[in-house]
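Researcher: Here's a chain I'd like modeled. Treat it as a single chain, no partners, no ligands.
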Amino acid sequence: MKHCILSAAVASSIFFAAVGSVDVSAFSVSDVSAKAAVIIDACSGNVIAGKNEDMTLPMASTTKIMSSLLLIESGDLDSKFKVDNDAIMVEGSSMGLRKDDIVTKRDLCYGMLLPSGNDAANETAVLLAGSPEKFAVMMNEKARDIGLKNTHFVTPSGLHDEDHYSTAYDMAMLTREALRNDTFREICGTKQIKLCFGDPPYERWLTNTNNLLSLYDGCIGVKTGFTDEAGRCLVSAAQRNGVTLICVTLNASDDWNDHMKMYEYGFSVTKSRKAVCDLSGMYVNVAGGSADKVHIEPAEIPEYTIINGSEPTISYKAEIENFIYAPVEKGRKAGEIRFYADEELIGISDLISSENCEAVIKEYEPSIFEILVERIKRSL
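Model: Modeled as a single isolated chain. C-alpha cells:
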C-alpha cells in the first residue's frame, strides 16, 4: 500500500561554411534556410524558437527515428536471426544487407540511424509487424501515444508518399521521447562503428551521415534525411551546461549552419537549474524499529531549464510506502517522487531513507485479561 503526497507549487557537408561567432542578439529563426524549423528544450518540450513549425511536410529518413525506437522497445536486441530476403530489396540508402544475412535487432538499429539503411527499416517492419503496411499502423499508434497531432506514417524508411508527413515540432517531440531511451541515445550519437553480420558473418564499418556530430561541439545525434520531394531534413540534439536542446529543419538548403546558428541562440537564452523543493518534513513509518519513522529524500534531484529568464513553477508528487520493516539502512527505497515544471514531468527518482533505524525486539507484555486470569489462579 502507498499513500500519495502532492506538493504545493514551488517557486556530409557540401553546404557547410564556417559559422564562426553568431550574433545571437540579431538572430531570427525566420532567416534560416529551412522551410520549417524549430528548437525546443528537451527537458520541458517548450519551444524556444520556430518557423512554420506546425506546417506538414515530408520528413524523409528522419522517419527512422520512429522505426528504430519501436525496434529498440521490442526488446531482445542481440539474438540473431535471418533477414527476410524480400524485405531488404528496397531502393535508396542501405546498410548492405544481402540474401540470407544473419543479423540482430541492434545491427538494424545501427543500420537505420548511421548509414540510414532503407533495407534495415524494411526488415524492421517485416520483423515486428509482418509487412510495412502493418508496421505503419504501429508507427501511427505510437505517434498518437506520444501526442504527435500532425504526423502520419506510411513507410518505415521515409521513402516518399503523399500521405507520409510530419511537422518540425512533431519530429522534435518524437526525438524528445526517443532520447529518453538510453539505447537509442547511444546509437544515434555514434559516429562510426564496426559490426559483424552476414552469411557467414564478417566485419564491416557503418558511418553516421550526421556530420553535425563532428561540426558542432556538444551534438549528441540524431538523424539526417533526404528525398527529392522532402529536400534536406535534419533532426539533431546538443548539450551544454546541463541543457539539452533539440533542433529540427525540414527542406533546408543549409541545414548544418541552420542548426549551429539555432543552437548558439538557444544556449544563449537557456540555463539549467536543480528542481529544489522543501522536502524536510517527508518521512516513512517504521514497524518494529527503535524509531516510529525515518526521514526520506530523493535519491536524485532532476534539473529543469529556464528559458529567457522565465522561471517555471516546480511541484512534485510523492508515493510513499505506508510503512517499512526495521532494520532500515540509510539509502533504503521507501517510495517514488515525480518532479514537474509547469505541470510537465521533468524527472522521476526513488525516495530513500536518509538515516538508519535499528530493529527492536520488545519484551512480551501480558494483557490485562491475562493478568486477571493469573491472579484468579493464584487465589484458588
